[in-house]
Amino acid sequence: MRVLVTGGAGFIGSHTVDRLLEIGHEAVVLDALVTPVHPEGRRPAYLSKEVDFYQGDVRNRDLVANLLRRVDAVYHFAAHQDYLPDFSRFSDVNVVSTALIYEVAVAERLDLARVVVASSQAAMGEGLYCCPTDGEQVPGMRPEADLAAGRWEIPCPTCGGPLQMMATPERVSNPQNAYGMSKLAEEMVAVNLGKRYGIPTVALRYSIVQGPRQSVYNAYSGACRIFCLSYMLGQAPVLYEDGQNVRDYVNIQDVVDANLLVLEDEAAVGHVLNVGGGQAVTTAQFAETVRAQYCSDLPPQVTGEYRFGDTRHILSDVSALGRLGWKPQRTPAESVKAYAEWLRDMPGLDAVLTEANARMRTLGVVRKAGS
């Protein structure tokens, strides 16, 4: 099979390309090589020479049409993700490019065996909770006044009582930031147009994917990047809020397993499927995993800072994908070890954290309770 991978020079895309080549497929990569993921704007050395590579924009109709005519299937991973408040760009890149793939496929009557679209856990927002009194709840975003006062937990929207976090299935869609909204819209465009026009489509909602090649320069890349860089540079990382935020972390190779499964499994077609680690991990616990990797005696610090727009807790229910035979095989410790080894010999990292932190404070993304 000849497969187009948009964003194929990036983190998830390049690992997927590697696996495609390993099992005998051909790969065509389209990537714009934009900052901050590709700060030098050139093809990364880790991308196989066997790849048919094109540098360009996924919104370029002529380019996309030319590539779609030559392939059997598509992985659409190209996306804009950042903390920047450039709201229109999220929709322009993430939604418009997805619609363009289907527009071209329909206009030219292309026979695509599969389109797999990368969505995100961010499409679920705060996710699913349970109130002992009022049952299931899907709360909205936390008020800024609560965050500024250091009130981190979410009360029941109905009775105001305590909530218990639950694993969130795909039926819950409650995005609360521009990136999450664009990913939900992308899912809807892909799955619904796929059904209407007979283009077999799957949308995968990735939770926090960890492993080598995750951008060092993109502030959106998250905990593994921040904690590894901190300990590598001999610094104690800062835990936002109280460090008890819950996330689930999934290894890049587990993600690639899911990507390859849905490429051929007909039972996946027409569905949105969670791809997560299957385990609730607090930020503090994850930081301790990183600290152990670096054998550091510096405990992480809680300073009362928080990121405006962050969810409090989110854990993906991966049972739907599990019914297709997939399950996460690797631990967060394995992801951290692989990422730390990849970082080890990388030059020019001394200023990365300082610059990212300064940028997020300037944008008002990182704030402090009580200030």
- Overall morphology: globular
How are helices and strands ordered from N to C?
EHEEHEHEEEHEHEEHEEEHEEHEEHHHE
The fraction of residues assigned to DSSP E strands is 15-25%
Structural class: alpha/beta
CATH architecture: 3-Layer(aba) Sandwich
The strands making up the biggest β-sheet line up spatially as 3-2-1-4-5-9-14
The number of domains is: 1
Provide the CATH topology: Rossmann fold
Using only C-alpha atoms, the radius of gyration works out to 20 Å
- Measured as a percent range, the helix fraction is 25-40%
Written overview of the protein:
This protein has helices at residues 11-22, 61-68, 87-107, 144-148, 178-197, 223-232, 252-264, 283-294, 319-322, 332-343, 352-362; strands spanning 2-6, 26-31, 52-55, 73-76, 114-120, 129-131, 135-137, 164-165, 201-206, 208-210, 238-239, 246-247, 249-251, 271-275, 281-282, 301-302, 305-307, 366-368. With 371 residues, it is an alpha/beta fold. The protein has a single domain (2-368), classed as NAD(P)-binding Rossmann-like Domain (Rossmann fold). Helix 6 crosses helix 10 (332-343). The longest helix has 21 residues, at 87-107. The mean pLDDT is 95.
Q: Which features characterize this protein?
A:
three-stranded antiparallel β-sheet, 371 residues, seven-stranded parallel β-sheet, globular, Rossmann fold, alpha/beta, 35% helix
Provide a compact summary of the structure.
The chain is of the alpha/beta class and 371 residues long.
Structural topology:
Elements: E1 2-6, H1 11-22, E2 26-31, E3 52-55, H2 61-68, E4 73-76, H3 87-107, E5 114-120, E6 129-131, E7 135-137, H4 144-148, E8 164-165, H5 178-197, E9 201-206, E10 208-210, H6 223-232, E11 238-239, E12 246-247, E13 249-251, H7 252-264, E14 271-275, E15 281-282, H8 283-294, E16 301-302, E17 305-307, H9 319-322, H10 332-343, H11 352-362, E18 366-368
Parallel strand pairs: 1-2, 1-4, 2-3, 4-5, 5-9, 9-14, 10-13, 11-16
Antiparallel strand pairs: 6-7, 6-8, 12-15, 17-18
Helix pairs in contact: 1-7, 2-3, 3-5, 6-8, 6-10, 8-10
